Automatic annotation (TrEMBL):
This is Penicillin-binding protein. PROSITE patterns: PASTA. The chain crosses the membrane at residues 20-40. It is found in: Membrane.
Length: 711
């Protein structure tokens, strides 16, 4: 009985063991199957997948092209910046490992003093951890370094062993191209920028030309977002982007921006815009759009390019000039044609009024005094039976279609209803600048045609694209120009008389007294918000050209919602003086349009004294145009001194790491120097720097605030 029981137990154990063995054998077989599958079947695919995560072909960014002003000044360029990393795999030999161990503490202390974001101990333990793991890449610090800072880093312990070949000491500089504007906020929205993949201005419109052609190479992943070229791999080098040469004049741009700031300070408008165009060529010499911004060093910034966008506001009385040109062309109306104005004029249950009671006016007087009633009554005489003809004239004046300007506006086509959708009032209301919307640049190009002997020319802001000294694209070849004038010579002569009369005895008579003469037209329109006109608030503008007898420049100045008394918010009081301020300064600097003086200079000028710091790029004006004594052109600033009839020039150098002396400079030059020294600038006033809060010669503290007072 006992023997039988023992036998049964042994059989059960044997049975269970055999079952367990079979299961284990099956599991082992299954494991071998999967191992075989992973190694020999799926292996190549898995290996390729793993490799693709750490080694892959990547695009190599090309260096973006430069943007230049008309005189060769840099408006935008790409500067190399560097992130500091380390490759600890280079410390293979006993000698190199000993070098690291002997200098690691000193290196950590230098990094702590340089970056000032961690203690020396923190840097030491961070480096030591990567060293122990022989880590092929460690991002030491994410802050971007400029070229001078890169040179300084190479003087640190360990790094200074092979300064000409830093990779031998584990130094890895990851290069990043950063866009830099030497003139800061000057023409900010027009030159443009790139933020969060949004590109505006010239940077956006010419992105393809500026961007160049990227290269390709095999890269190894070193860190979360860091890749490094794989040693020995072949790569296709990127092709640098094209350089763009604009028509912008940095001096005129500076004049325009200062004048707009001064006017905005006085009238507190929502925004102000101004454009200066060279009459014969259509070249935009300056374009500015300013709004209040307390965070900006100047107190103003550019957020929207109002000059090229179709405005939300009606153009106002500046649109009376196209109406008058159309009427003169259609009817050959004499300047002496009379019309009764004054009071209010009601037609089709709509009432129009004038700001003053002018009584009976001639056609010339209607424009000179900007009479709404006079314009509408004359339009009824000429176009009452054929209103659609008015539309045809506007189309011929290039006021209804997109300009195809090189910087693409968000809204390019003027808002002007076609005749089939007109009511009985439309053609009359549009003739005085209401019930339509257009861009300031459209209007400027129309007035420019008047200044240009009747020939319309398309506005242009980029002349050419170059690669080195070779012109790759000449944009003037595709610039549109009319082969015929937009009106007859008879009409053009009448229009010019009217515009001259606006300044001599009309709504712009506060612009008289210049040596060169101005012709132009004021415009004041009630602002329209959500389709409703708001009484007492205006959009004001002045468009004109100078010198009056031989125009070289055509200009527009506009401001939205200037504040003040009822007499202080019209175009006459607000934008016309800004026009004169700008034209006076342009005339003073443009030797070619100035009248030659005869006779003797008064003693007050013969005995005059002057001291001014001159930007390196402005030296040529003194040398070639004024014939003053020349100094060696070595990129230094120039101290220009005139005392009586004696002129002395000498180069000025700024001490490194010391706050520069900017007293006597204009705002543009002062911002250029101080911001390049790493200071934050807050400016007050207009004109030239009178004082600075941090005296010249004081040691520079990075990101310190310096206040400069101008007068």
């Amino acid at each position: 009985m006992a023997k039988s029981t023992t036998q049964n137990i042994r059989q059960i154990i044997t049975k269970r063991f055999n079952g367990f063995f079979v299961i284990m054998l099956g599991a082992f077989g299954l494991l071998m199957f999967f191992l075989f599958k992973v190694v020999f079947v799926d292996g190549p695919t898995l290996k390729a997948d793993a490799s693709s995560k750490y080694i892959k072909e990547r695009s190599i960014e090309a260096v973006r092209g430069n943007i230049y002003a008309s005189d060769g000044s840099l408006l935008a360029t790409s500067l190399p910046k560097y992130r500091l990393g380390m490759d600890f795999s280079v410390f293979k030999t006993a000698k190199m490992r000993e070098v690291y161990k002997n200098n690691a503490r000193a290196l950590a202390e230098h990094l702590s003093a340089f970056y000032q974001d961690r203690t020396a101990d923190e840097y030491y333990y961070k480096l030591q951890k990567a060293f122990d793991k022989k880590q092929p890449y460690l991002l030491v610090n994410n802050r971007l370094l400029d070229y001078q800072e890169r040179k300084k880093v190479l003087t640190f312990p360990i790094f200074n062993l092979h300064p000409n070949n830093p990779i031998k000491t584990g130094v890895v500089f990851d290069k990043v191209n950063v866009r830099y504007a030497p003139f800061g906020q000057t023409a900010y929205r027009t030159v443009g920028y790139m933020k969060d993949k949004v590109r505006v201005g010239i940077e956006g419109a010419f992105d393809k030309e500026l961007a160049g052609v990227p290269g390709h190479g095999i890269f190894e992943k070193m860190d979360k977002n860091m890749w490094r070229p794989l040693d020995g791999s072949k790569e296709i080098l990127p092709q640098r982007g094209l350089d763009l040469h604009t028509t912008l004049d940095v001096d005129i741009q500076d004049i325009v921006e200062l004048a707009l700031m001064k006017s905005l300070d006085a009238y507190k408008g929502n925004y102000a815009t101004a454009v200066v165009m060279e009459t014969a060529t259509g070249e935009i010499k300056a374009i500015s759009n300013l709004m209040k911004n307390e965070k900006s060093p100047t107190g103003y910034s550019e957020f929207v390019n109002y000059a090229i966008e179709v405005s939300e506001n009606d153009p106002g009385s500046v649109f009376k000039l196209p109406a008058m040109m159309a009427m003169l062309e259609e009817s050959h109306m004499p300047l002496t044609e009379t019309v009764t104005t004054g009071g209010k004029y009601t037609i089709y249950n709509k009432t129009m009024s004038d700001s003053h009671d002018y009584g009976t006016l001639t056609a010339q007087g209607v424009i000179e005094h900007s009479s709404n009633i006079g314009t509408i009554k004359l339009m009824q005489r000429v176009f009452g039976s054929k209103p659609a003809k008015w539309y045809d004239y506007l189309k011929g004046f290039h006021l209804l279609d997109p300009l195809d300007f090189q910087i693409k506006p968000v809204t390019a086509k003027p808002n002007f209803r076609v005749p089939t959708k007109w009511d009985a009032l439309t053609y009359m209301w549009t003739s005085v600048g209401y019930s339509s919307n257009t861009s300031p640049l459209h209007l400027l190009s129309f007035y420019n045609a008047i200044a240009n002997n009747g020939y319309w020319v398309q506005p242009i802001i980029v002349k050419k694209a170059t690669q080195g000294n070779e012109v790759v694209i000449d944009y003037t070849q595709t610039q549109k120009r009319d082969s015929k004038p937009i009106c007859s010579k008879e009409t053009l002569d009448k229009i010019r008389i009217m515009l001259k009369g606006v300044v001599e005895r009309g709504t712009g008579n506060n612009l008289t007294g210049t040596a060169y003469g101005i012709a132009g037209k004021t415009g004041t329109a009630q602002r329209r918000v959500n389709g409703q006109y708001i009484k007492g608030t205006y959009y004001v503008s002045f468009i004109g050209y100078f010198p009056v007898n031989n125009p070289k420049y055509t200009m527009l100045v506009a401001m939205d919602k200037p504040l003040g008394s009822s007499e202080g918010t019209y175009a006459r009081q607000v934008t016309a003086p800004v026009f004169k301020d700008i034209s006076d300064h342009i005339y003073a600097r443009d030797m070619k349009i100035q009248r030659k003086l005869t006779g003797y200079l008064p003693d007050s000028l013969n005995n005059a004294s002057l001291h001014h710091l001159v930007h390196p790029l402005d030296h040529g004006i003194l040398y070639s145009n004024l014939g003053f004594p020349r100094i060696e052109e070595d990129g230094r600033w120039l101290s220009f001194q005139l005392k009586k009839k004696e002129v002395k020039n000498y180069g000025v150098s700024f001490a490194p790491k010391k706050v520069a002396n900017v007293v006597g400079m204009n705002l543009r030059d002062a911002l250029f120097i101080l911001e390049n020294q790493g200071l934050k600038v807050r400016a007050q006033g207009l004109g030239f720097v009178k004082s600075q809060s941090i005296p010249a010669g004081f040691p520079i503290q990075k990101n310190a605030m310096i206040n400069i007072q101008l007068h």
